[in-house]
Amino acid sequence: MDIYKQLKKTVFLTAGVFLAGACTDKFEEMNISPNNPVEVSSAVLLPNGIESSVDRYWGHNARYERLNLDGGMLWMQYLSRNIYSNEGDNYSVNPSFHNNNWKGFYNDAALNFQRIVVQSGPGGRNPNTNYEGIGLVMRSWVFSLLTDLYGAIPYSEALQGTAESPVYTPKYDSQEQVYAGLLEDLRLANEKLVVGGPKVSGDVMFYGDILRWKKFANSLRLKLANRQAAKKPAESRAVMAEILGDPATYPVFTNNEDYAVLEHTSALPSNNEWHQVMIQGSRTDWNMSSTLVDQLQALGDTRLTVFAQPNKAGEYAGHANGLPDAIATTYLSSSSVLGTAFLQPSTPSVIMSYAELLFVLTEAALDGDISGDAQAYYEQAIAASFGQYGLEVPAGYLGAAGPATKESIMTQKWIALFGQGVEAWTEYRRTGFPVLPPHDSRAVFMNDGELPSRLQYPSSEYSLNQAQLDAGIALNGGPDNMKTKMWWVE
Amino acid sequence: MVIWLLHSSYAIAQNQVVTGKVSSEEDGLPLPGVSVALKGTTIGTVTGMEGDFSLPVSGENNTLIFSFIGMLQQEVPVGGRTEITIVMAPDSKQLSEVVVTAFGIEREKKALGYTVQEVSGEELAEVKTSNVVNSLSGRVAGVQISSNGGPGSGSNIVIRGSSSVSGNNQPLVVVDGVPIQQSSTNKYGGGISEINPEDIASMSVLKGANAAALYGARAANGVILVTTKNGSGTKGIGLAISSSATFERPLVKPDFQNTYGGGHGYRTWYSNGRSATITDPLEIAQYQDAYGPNAPLTGTAGTDESWGAPLDGRLVRQWWTGADVAPLVPQSDNWDEFWETGQTYVNSIALTGGNDKGGFRLSVGRLDQKGIMYNNDFKRNNISLNTSYNLTQKLKAVVSGEYIESGSDNRGFQSGQQFIWSHRHVSWDQLKNWRDYAAVHIQREGDDLPPNWQHTFFTNPFYEQEFLTDANDKDRIRGSVALNYAFNDKLSLLLRSGTDLWSDTRINVSRFERISNGNFRAGQYSEEVLRNQETNHDLILTYAGTLSPDISVTAQGGGAFRSNYYKRNYAQVEQLVIDGLYSLNNNASPNINASAIEEKQVQSLFGSAQFGFREYLFLDVTGRNDWSSTLPANNNSFFYPSVSLSAVLTEMLHLNSSTLPFAKVRGSWAQVGNDADPYQLAQIFNARSPWNASVPSFAENTTIANATLKPETTTGTEIGADLRFLDGRIGLDATYYEQVTKDQILGVEISKASGYHQRILNAGKVSNKGVELMLFGSPVDMPNGFKWDVTLNFARNRNLVEELAEGLTTYTLYTRQGVSSEARVGQPYGTFYGNAFKRSPDGQVIYENGLPKIAEGQAVLGNIQPDWLGGVSNAFTFKGITLSALVDVKKGGDIYDEGTGTARWTGQYAETAVGREEGVIGKGVRNIGSAEAPVYVPNDVIADGKAFYGYNNPRTYHESAIFDASYVKLREVSISYSIPASLVSRIRAQSASISLVGRNLAILFKNTPHIDPEIDAYGGNAQGFTYGQLPNSRSIGAGLNVAF
């Protein structure tokens, strides 16, 4: 029939006309994002990786996930809460504390260091051994935080979500395996980092000074070796001997000028996280803990004048940790608050201090892991800590502090680690020092009154990586709670 | 193209012109505005002033269709005649309803194999709402509308349950054949909420994938087809004026306690706005007069809770008393003080005209709204023009356009948390007049803040409403041009282009200059400019004819082209130099900048054919192929078909019973494909704030892109029956449907230890199965004109997550305070997980030391999906008076109401005043046996009141904040009166009516003790979560309609 021929012809024609004006050739081009690059240089990945990892370690600024301010700094009784003691001070921990610190360290920090290692490594898009070395150092530091917080963690299969053979459910490595891996990674990093080698930029930590990166790599390696020394003495001693026996190849921190630190600036959000929380965010929830104030006053320790501000009566005072809000709030205006040196936008976030290295050596000497005089290292370490704040060791202080024993070393290290709450908590968990005072009778603690021994695995691992997680929990030798002990506990 | 059109046109000659007249059976008067259509074509006209028409027809066997709202449609064979006179009778049964279907094609409802439900403009205009879509609630079976209530706000619309776990379950909105962009943010509204209700002739809801295969991907969630009024149906020039004013107040007032004031420890004392030590000798003396010599010397205003002193008139310092004291008394009415009376004024004028060549309608609408929150408003101007003109007898042009200007000085509103973290003894009238107290208001040294009841956590909300404004200024233009050319009586071509372009500038002041806690904070604001455009072109060739005398066929084929463009420019001044001067140059530190562009194109070819056999058996077949720019080149083409069948049994089997005059069964099967959002194929890096405002910083995106995406598919099947009983006085429309969506494009979370947060995957299978029933009738229809019409709607949907990605059993939709709404395999979409109370084997809460225990692990706490939705609408008419009432029912569906839980925990609500001083015994059991061999006895241990009510803290005790959100609402009541023609003619008007309307008048039933259970605080996948959102309001108003 004519009409059908006509219909067919018309449909064909109209379709033809229609498609002539529109074709799908440009689709692929159109679907390339005009907003985001698909490749970037290591120079622009480095600042974000450093900033996000250090901010999380020193802060964090988000409520319920302030790892240091509401975790380490309270648990080690440097600070205490005057309100909301259930946000960490009484050992109750919000789920986002477990979840978001895990997520933040893996996704914001380690992922970008991994990308740097991959793209600047051999066969990478843009090989550069110095970027590769920096990436390895920072990735190792982040992994060391993660394992010290949680225990067994995905390490050897971690960060492989976009690898050639992607891993979406990475297996857990025991803390022992992670430490072994990190000690090797840091050795490799020192090897990759070449003074006078390829230039790096975007290095907001050491401003492209490769020697400082080498010193950080080796100092961190010494610290990790010392941490596991009681469990793996031979291996740890070998690492220490390797580093200390060849300072030219393995330089370490030598004074208070070349410690590992992120120097913050007043341009937000590059400011210090405590400044962000307490000044920008106007939170006044923290006072000094009576544990720290009492200890420093007993020692006549002048660092108290830096750590804290006197109260209205002109005195240094603190209050006990874990007090219920009704009691804690009454201390708000009578207890001392943090010293102004710690509340500036540019207050540095200390990653590893020179004093800390010296305390590592002190302990290693005391334990016989290295040769050298523990007492001499101990005195140097104390002096370095005072020096860090521009102070001299007061006369008679060493007498008050007592000779170098495990307890006095670790107690002094605790004071020196003021601000580095997570590190102090780790060292406390390992050695049991300093001896913390008995709980205030009015205080109410969760976790059966036990100071948390670790963080719980995030709920996301339960829903997204259950089988590997179960194996990981088994590696820890105890249930996934805040009481199971770490492998390196002495 | 044009040449080709011209070329084709002379090939088909026209044969004759039919002229005629149409009049009304009732009064014998001519009927203007009757639609006269040549059956099976798009050729048609409308009758003129005298009911006259003239229409070219060609070929033999022509039939004309005469239709007019409220009249029985007539089909009249031309049979060679050149003059036809028609008398139209009123349609009381409305058996041959005409509904608007895909591509705006009006079809007889009996021919459809799927469900379409229509709401007329009259119904919508009777009770005016600023967002017209809210009127669908309770009127259309299976449509769930949740609105958030602020002026100019949008609503969340879900038809037949949620099918996509990725969050967007909103239907497509099509106005006069052209899709418009439907905004997903509730606060700013957009899309259907911006339409002037007075312009709407009707709204059709095409539910499910079945109804809408021809609209492409976005129709998977259903389509709302809006048909606007045009000039047809007017006697010459017509003028319609409509005006209404409505007033709003909050519908539900929480049940507050008025026994204890703000603070803690049975003390209420404002010292300096924070938890301060009292040192001033005068203050100490005053304080000890109130609380005795042993009370701790601290002010309590820093605690934003109401565990303070009994409101017994004792003399205490308050925020407004300065160094004086004033009696502490209840402020039972402070809820009413806080809220303003909202006002909505809708005015519109429409000018219409028409003749046999065409028609036009010009309308101007103005909406002025003031919210129930202080300094929260919205205004909108709509100017629209609809024209149609028969350029030649074959070529018709339809041009329509609308300009919408909207905006506000402040879109922002307080979320109602003022009654959650609060002091029960404060007067909001006083706080609104904070300037009066600035001189005496005491603050701590180092604070320079606007006077408020406290300073630790809160700023005076009236100050924030006045100074922290969220202004916007939006322009929207939408329009379309359509040319319809009839080659002959069987074949016609439609060419149509439409665009919808809007640009919105939002200026948001986020901080005012202040000194707080000794720290100076500069002001802060942001500017955001959004530009969105969607353009659609389509071309449809229609053939309508017969294959044999018994078989009619309508076939359509064509192509469509759609492009979307989105642009965002954003700048934020971190620190203003001069406070109150909102310019991007007025900055003390570098601004934060952001911008984004998104582009997308979809091209389509489609075809459809409708076969009719003897007017009682109808078969529809459709197919569509889309090519989308957002999918990988090898996967970017996808085809989806549909088929539906409808049989009018009464005609088929020649059943001529007055008991069952009409019976139809229908069935259909349809698929809809869907593409992705742009830019999901390649791994990208995101810019971060430069270090020290100078060193550039990027981070890898933690979503793993997927270069092998394929389209999503929704498959829907439905069967239904449409029955009329007792001469059509009772009707029943029943539908059963199943809809399955699979290969959803989802961001599937993975172990964070992989380095990444989620992967983009084709994953998941979600099914929705349900029943929809509509029963309607006229129980009373008396000769004296008294009539009662009633319609019942019922819809029940069962949703099930059948599969997610491989190895994945949980997809988290939204999380707040540790409560997550999840899509878990084997559970319905939106299941709440969180901490539950520990219960004995017989289900009672277990107490220990008088306080409830928490069960270990996470438990299912509820689900957001309602059991069923329903509505009853009644209309009574008598001599020009119409009284109508709509009752809207939602049964089941849970919410996580953080507001109620928190306000109990902070001692705001009446139940928390019970046992504060004596202690409380919780209802449940306690274990007097061992942990291994428990023995439960009724709990008889008295617990401290504050500790006990603390177990309502929704951040930890999630179960305590889960509520059943069932409701029965008196949604609308209206009385309208049509002024008799004899009176109306005196002012030379054709018709006039006045009406009194009320919306959200009462909640007849609910299970939430303190709030209106109809909530939608966050939209999208966060349905079911609320935290002190703006209360829904009851509105009462009056309207006037006059037509000249």
Automatic annotation (TrEMBL), chain A:
Gene3D superfamilies: 1.25.40.390. SUPFAM superfamilies: TPR-like. It comes from the Bacteria. Keywords: Lipoprotein. Pfam families: SusD-like_2 (PF12771). This is SusD/RagB family nutrient-binding outer membrane lipoprotein. It comes from Pontibacter saemangeumensis. The lineage of its organism: Bacteria, Pseudomonadati, Bacteroidota, Cytophagia, Cytophagales.
TrEMBL record, chain B:
Residues 110-223 form the TonB-dependent receptor plug domain. The keyword Lipid metabolism does not apply. Keywords: Cell outer membrane, Membrane, TonB box, Transmembrane, Transmembrane beta strand, Transport. InterPro entries: Beta-barrel_TonB, Beta-barrel_TonB_sf, CarboxyPept-like_regulatory, Plug_dom, Plug_dom_sf, TonB-dep_OMP_SusC/RagA, TonB-dep_OMP_SusC/RagA_CS, TonB-dep_rcpt-like. It is a multi-pass membrane protein. Residues 447-861 form the TonB-dependent receptor-like beta-barrel domain. It is found in: Cell outer membrane. Belongs to the TonB-dependent receptor family. This is SusC/RagA family TonB-linked outer membrane protein. It comes from Pontibacter saemangeumensis.
